[in-house]
Design a protein that fits this description.
This protein is of the alpha/beta class and 515 residues long. It contains 20 helices and 18 strands. Helices cover 39% and strands 15% of the residues. Strand 17 and strand 18 (434-436) form a beta hairpin.
């Protein structure tokens, strides 16, 4: 499913009418009917409905919903704008309300407190005050109105986007409606999935308004929201005569005295993703302790520094191992010594096997990120926000405001795929396309989760999956397994290793052919 900006959705609305001949009134009717159907389905106990409207098309959607609900609910429409300010389809649908058994009340500054008492006496509030076209900070009047309904405790269904949120960034423009659920029209909007919007949008649902599929899937819309259907049939069935060599070898170059566990997590992630073999290249002194924790992993003991990191002298041996591998994961727990970072830089520039560059492998390029353009192999980088901020030379705060743009910038600048980890992981390619992952939960904010993810990408790439598809499937499955485990164990105290036993079944279910 495509993920769009407010401007892109406006283009879709316009072209639906001008190019495909679909009347805008029909789209508004479909939107209002979808709202009414959702109310009946998800809020069956709600008898008294308050529809809160402004002066735009978002209010028009609310008016249509009010009309459909009036036959079996007690409906009151509260209007924040003068009726004469309504235009086009919204004005037409407002005029139609007069023929239906519902009440219309005008809310103004002088009677706001009095009307709020009536509003919050409802069983359900339908927020249709502002839509995706909102710009600028809300007035004190609207802020007071929104604060009042937020404090009421009455469930709120937001239409298209909670009023007060920027549809592109998810930022609150002074104040925003805190919705229990948001029914967005046609396609999901980028701002709904931004970190800033997380506490406002509630459950996100998408209403099908019967836009032409070719318009919704147009290549002009660069964003895609990942969903299970994208992965059906992506991994071929395993044949009876296959062997471990059939499914590739992953070379994981990782580990240091302080972060020895990261190497195991990445290696096991690759194995659980289905790789036939995993070879773990790590400092010689760590081999014995690591072997006890991951018996299935082949060890490649490397020459080490005095601080038990990988030494530069291990470069040729490691490059030779990479030549025999199907995919390479470099960086988990590698450490921060100067010599090990020099090893990571030289390996990255000389290696010719598809490479997943993670953690300290990325930090090795902080001083001169442009070196990443000199890599000879296809490259995926898997930074968390701090690591990517250092590579881009910006603050973490600025990066987090525009995670999508930051991931796109990195992919274009370094000619690679970027997996920007965190809430709503973003995957971007050098051509400007991006994919947003909706899976995952706060329980996954713990050490080692990124190591497992890097290993999964490597394990899928080793099975001849193109790097983009491997990155998308790994990100979605990683979060989905985290959600599954959290539903059983709870989010607090969730460990990266808890995910590993459940990964094979999740991948099998995601990639089974469509029936």
């Amino acid at each position: 499913m495509k993920l769009v900006t407010a401007g892109e959705m406006a283009t879709i609305d316009r072209e639906a009418s001008t190019k495909y001949g679909i009347p805008s009134m029909l789209l508004m009717e479909n939107a209002g009917r979808a709202i009414a159907n959702l109310v009946r389905l998800d809020y069956p106990e709600a008898e008294r409905i308050a529809v809160l409207g402004g002066k735009g098309n978002n209010a028009g959607d609310g008016f249509v919903a009010a009309r459909h609900l009036a036959s079996d609910h007690s409906v009151t429409v509260f209007l924040s704008a003068p009726p004469e300010s309504l235009q086009g389809d919204a004005a037409t649908n407002y005029a139609l309300l007069k023929a239906y058994p519902l009440e219309i009340r005008r809310v103004q500054t002088e009677n706001l407190e009095q009307e709020l008492v009536r509003i919050v006496d409802a069983d359900l509030l339908i927020d249709a005050i502002f839509g995706t076209g909102l710009q600028g900070t809300l007035s004190a009047y609207h802020c007071q109105w929104i604060q009042g309904i937020n404090q009421s405790g009455v469930p709120i269904l937001a239409i298209d986007i909670p009023s007060g949120l920027d549809a592109n960034t998810g930022q609150a423009l002074g104040e925003a409606v805190r919705a229990q659920s948001t029914l967005t029209m046609g396609l999901p909007k980028r701002g709904l999935y931004a970190p800033a919007a997380a506490e406002w949008v509630g459950q996100i649902l998408v209403a099908d308004l019967s836009y032409p599929p070719t318009l919704l899937q147009d290549d002009r819309w660069k964003g895609t929201l990942l969903e299970p259907s994208l992965f059906h049939g992506l991994l071929p069935r395993r044949t009876r005569d296959s062997h471990k060599g059939t499914y590739g070898t992953v070379l994981v170059i990782a580990g240091s005295l302080r972060y020895r566990g990261a190497a195991n997590l990445a290696g096991l992630g690759a194995l659980r993703a289905g790789a036939g073999l995993v070879q773990l290249a790590l400092p010689r002194s760590l081999c014995l302790s690591n072997q006890r924790k991951a018996d299935e992993i082949i060890q490649l003991p490397l020459m080490e520094t005095e601080s038990f990191g990988i030494a530069l002298a291990a470069l040729e041996e490691t490059l030779e191992a990479a030549n025999q591998a199907s995919a390479v994961v470099l960086g988990p727990g590698l450490g921060a010594s100067k010599e090990t970072h020099e090893f990571a830089r030289q390996f990255t520039l000389k290696n010719k096997t598809p490479l997943i560059l993670d953690a300290d492998g990325l930090n090795a390029f902080t001083a001169d990120p442009s070196l990443l353009l000199q890599t000879a192999a296809p490259l995926v980088i898997t930074p968390h926000p701090g690591e990517l901020a250092r590579l881009l030379g910006c603050s973490v705060a600025a990066l987090q405001i525009d995670r999508i743009g930051s991931a796109q910038d990195a992919s274009a600048r370094f000619d690679c795929l970027t997996i920007l980890k965190g809430y709503r992981t973003v995957i971007a390619d050098p051509g400007g396309r991006f994919y947003l992952n909706p899976t995952g939960n706060p329980g996954m904010a713990s050490g080692g989760m990124g190591d497992v993810l890097a290993g999964i990408v490597g394990g899928l790439a080793a099975q001849k999956l193109p790097l983009l598809e491997a990155s998308l499937l790994a990100s979605f499955a990683h979060g989905l397994v985290g959600d599954l485990v959290a539903s059983e164990l709870g989010e607090r105290g969730l460990l990266a290793s808890d995910l590993l036993p459940f990964l094979p079944k999740t991948l099998a279910q995601l990639t089974q052919p469509s029936s």
